[in-house]
Structure formats: C-alpha cells, structure tokens
Hints:
Structural class: alpha+beta
Amino acid sequence: xxxxxxPDCRRxxxxxxxxxxxAPALTLDEYFASxxxxxxxxxxxxxxxxxxxxPVHVEPVSVGIFLKKAGGWIELRPKTKWVALSFPFPxxxxxxxxxxxxxxxxxxxxxxxxxxxxxxxxxxxKDWLTESYDFER
Length: 137
C-alpha cells in the first residue's frame, strides 16, 4: 500500500502533503467508547470481509471510520439508526440498496448503502466492495 503519512497527525493519505484536517486518528477502543451500539458489529462484519480482499488501513476519526488502500476507499459513518457505507465504483449502480443519489467524480462514482445490522452486509454489497477494491483509482 503506497501512501504518505502526515508527520504531524500520523494519518495516511494517497499523495504527499495532501490537504486534510490535521487531527490524529483515534484508536478503535477510543472511537467505539462513545458510538451507538449498532455501529461496532457492522464495522466488524465489513472489516473482516475487506481484510480478505488485500491490505487495508483502518483509520478511526471523529466523524467515522475510513478504510484505506493507498488513499481513501471506504467510509463508515454512524447515523442514529444505521451506518452509512460509502464507496467508489467504476460506474453507477442502479439498485434499491443505494440510499443516496450516486455522485460522479470523474473516473468513479461514489455510492452509499445504509446498513442497520451486520446481516444487511450481504453478498450483494460484498460483491460491490470486491469490484470497488479491484478497481484502480
């Protein structure tokens, strides 16, 4: 995983001196100490799966957990009743599981799936993440 680590906050990014809010990442224990109870089981299910795809760096920050390859890849952001899973994809996915309008940013399209439980992290979502992981950004 090629990346640059900020010497001040020790967070990893795709490009050297990439602009960011320079705040250190939390430990997983620090992060989950104040989160909603449904968040940890969903993170565990997603994390266990994506580790099987290849190297992934886990970065808990105040707004959620970022799972990174060389740069950003997946974002898990807690909501009151679910966790919003955001991921890039090489094309627009037309499926009722996509909870927000996909955002086209050039070479890829950002999608969001709302997960209310680990069981909603099913084979359909896993297939999307597998293709997303393999897609070179």
